[in-house]
Amino acid sequence: MSTKDPKDTVRVALLGCGTVGGEVARLLTEQAGELAARAGARLEIAGIAVRRPDKHPELPQELLTADVTGLVTRDDVDVVVELVGGIEPVRGWLLDALKAGKSVVTANKALLADHSAELFEAADASGVDLYFEAAVAGAIPLLRPLRESLAGDRITRVMGIVNGTTNFILSAMDATGAGYAETLDEASRLGYAEADPTADVDGYDAASKAAILASLAFHTRVTAADVHREGIADVTASDIAAARSLGRTVKLLCICERVTDEDGVESVAVRVHPVMIPLSHQLSGVNGAFNAVYVEADAAGELMFYGQGAGGAPTASAVLGDLVAVARNLVLGGRGPRESAHAALPVRPMGQTPTRYHLSLYVADVAGVLAQVAQVFADHGVSIAAVRQSDSKGSASLVVITHLATDAALKSTVDQIAKLDVVHEVVSVMRVEGEDQ
Amino acid sequence: MSTKDPKDTVRVALLGCGTVGGEVARLLTEQAGELAARAGARLEIAGIAVRRPDKHPELPQELLTADVTGLVTRDDVDVVVELVGGIEPVRGWLLDALKAGKSVVTANKALLADHSAELFEAADASGVDLYFEAAVAGAIPLLRPLRESLAGDRITRVMGIVNGTTNFILSAMDATGAGYAETLDEASRLGYAEADPTADVDGYDAASKAAILASLAFHTRVTAADVHREGIADVTASDIAAARSLGRTVKLLCICERVTDEDGVESVAVRVHPVMIPLSHQLSGVNGAFNAVYVEADAAGELMFYGQGAGGAPTASAVLGDLVAVARNLVLGGRGPRESAHAALPVRPMGQTPTRYHLSLYVADVAGVLAQVAQVFADHGVSIAAVRQSDSKGSASLVVITHLATDAALKSTVDQIAKLDVVHEVVSVMRVEGEDQ
User: Domain ACT: where (chains A, B) (predicted)?
Assistant: First the structure.
């Protein structure tokens, strides 16, 4: 453990100087007086690592370096702020930094989702801090409340909109009635989707965040591989229309739950997929690039956190909050929260996770169709919550919403219903959340 | 400063054992293992101070005492949790505790609003912690984000629904169309209003919370006396109906703003009063006994925090979060946030605070009325944003919404308009927030 005297200057190594890094550098300079008053020490940039120093004429040249390992282990560096992203080579850099006794502030969700145990161990061994508020939901103070404010409570559920790109696309599909492909094109044109949107639209980004949230909420190591993940590429205009006609909307949610089975055994279920939620639910009004996370805890009840989930300035705000916390700890002594994995609950597979389905079908307009469909549900032990039938030109529309059942039972129910002769088309299948059961 | 060895047990003195205290005691016992894992030390109740120990057969008798000063200065006590409320004699008890080197966790908004400087000084002198998350918005993790997560950002505005009783009454008036007095009776009957509802309905409770929020947000000492306060007793069914007809609703808000005048001089304006906000605004959907606080910061942008603002379990959740933080500091060393009053901005009087008014009038149905009314606005330098006129049986209805002007200018404009011969009745006057200007 590196022992440092209380100090009046905390020196920061910045890795990466893109949109977020640039904002962090700007705010560190412009708000220097304010930050010093809050941190109890001046925050000073000791160096900035960028791939090509010659490509950054806008930055003070004497601070720039391409030698990341050299910078993060330099004697005069106290804190490393990592804004490069991706797993390798960042993982090695941060382990080097932590082993050299530097605290780390990072916005790297992919790294945290898969390697937080290793990083926390290195931080512990050196007695330094690891903060990562900006890794989930950008500017929204969310990880600190989960790790600290709710430390005396028992969280049962975390459910959130944590990816702005997919939320923008689904909001736009809902507003215009357009299909997925053309809305994605529009989002790309407007700069709301990356040139390669895979990480967002296929749910990888949200799954990383879900892993981080579940780990903190349930004191259990959850990695991205533990998260059941479905993206939004299969959401159709029909799905959105079906939701709308039922007073619901479609969102890509990350859902982290504590599940207790009949024998009282606890596990956690963590998933990312499109969901129908009622328009009356707090999360339904979260549109465009905004993020929001809904938390349920035994004592606190329902909580919601809302704000900007991405962007240079919002993310920089979260990074600076962490940086002030690290600086305060260096000045006053003390440590930020350590890994909390003492509960070590098992992760429940998706098939055994309780969910509810909405199913919208075109069926033959003949007597006895509902009876046939209902029998399939009964055969799989799935209980029906509501049914709506309506006729239209020779074919009838049938909408079913189920009670809770295991996802596997629901899936095989739908598979078998699709094979019934009387079923002309499965218009929409979607999981349902956020309503009374 | 009291120096303590790292320890495996943190001993808690509980002052008051009503609804919240009872929940805290229950959770300390039931969640003992979990709390110990999170705090790094066992949390143990050292004693419970109640006025009449003989009236609490449900509590362990050996822990009870009526001697508060004796308890809070006892050698084996590490932390004092205060849930009695009110200013005296609690102020003296907590100063005694802090001077004796005990950290303090309190939910006491009235005390914090008026005496935080003195309490923080005592905490600093002893090198101990003062936490008070439960004092504002119950279970909602709000003060920690303001004090810590946003420590690197510049907050420009905090606007919130922080009193559940008044929000319940206004929500019910909006839903039923009933008047204030009868809705208050109903709220009392249902247990949503105290027998003496003054502190809630006259805005004292919200004003204390506003003072605390403004102090933290603007790094400036703001007391309850600095807060302009108007309650909801004058809100009429007509006001609510007028709001509804304009796509707005009425909420009692606390509004804390950073105001920069033409010369670039900064000040803070802090106020509690009924406000019309558009139905599209995030805060408009916060109904019943829920609380929500909306924060704007330079880098983070818009944030909102939502949850239960009162009640035994939710408040206990916030208290326990603080208690875990204090315990961690005792175990690991380090300190919680200290008073941050370095900005020391002046408080702006209400008359000089920029606001916007909505004004609804019955006027004579003759030509030139709008011209006369508009002239009064012009005479006071108040610019009109929108006007709506409609006729009904000999009298006409005129609705005016202004641009921003000082509250004093708006007030004298309304006073003079009320005296015009052509104005039959001032139906509703209310400030407007949360829309584009």
Answer: 358-431
Tens of pLDDT along B226-258? 999 999 999 999 999 999 998 999 999 999 999
DSSP code, position B417: H
Work out the average pLDDT over A290-313.
Answer: 94
Query: Can B209 be counted among the known catalytic residues?
Result: yes
- Set of chain B residues whose Cβ sits within 8 Å of the Cβ of A305: 303-306
Q: A313–B329: do the CB atoms touch at under 8 Å?
A: no
Those residues whose C-beta lies under 8 Å from the C-beta of residue A108, and which sit 6 or more positions away, are A82, A84, A85, A86, A90, A132, A135
- pLDDT tens figures, B272-286: 999 999 998 889 989
Ordered domains of chain B (ranges, CATH): 9-138+312-332 (3.40.50.720), 143-306 (3.30.360.10), 352-432 (3.30.70.260)
CA-CA distances (angstroms) from residue B278 to A268, B162, B247? 40, 18, 6
Burial class (CB in 10 A: 0-12, 13-18, 19+), B21: buried
Q: Is residue B15 a contact partner of residue B84, using CB atoms and an 8 Å limit?
A: yes
Residue B4 scores a pLDDT above 50: no
Question: Which has the minimum average pLDDT: A122-126, A330-334, B109-113, B160-164?
Answer: A330-334
Question: B144 to chain A, minimum CA–CA distance in Å?
Answer: 7
ipTM of the complex as predicted = 0.90
Query: Which residue's structure tokens are 């509250």?
Result: B407
Report how far residue B57's alpha carbon sits from residue A323's, in angstroms, rounded to the nearest whole number. Answer: 49
| Structure-token pair, residue A39 | 């941190």
Catalytic annotation, pick one of A4, A55, A99, A209: A209
Residue from B29, B317, B328, B329 to probe the interface with A (highest A Cβ count within 10 Å): B317
Window 20-39 of B: residues touching A by CB (8 A cutoff) are 23, 27, 31, 34-35, 37-39
Q: Where are the beta strands (DSSP E) in B16-75?
A: 42-49, 64-65
What is the layout of strands, in order, in the sheet containing B79-82?
B64-65, B42-49, B9-15, B79-82, B103-106, B130-131
The distance of A138 to chain B (nearest Cα, Å) reads 8
B209, B251, B411, B419: the catalytic one is B209
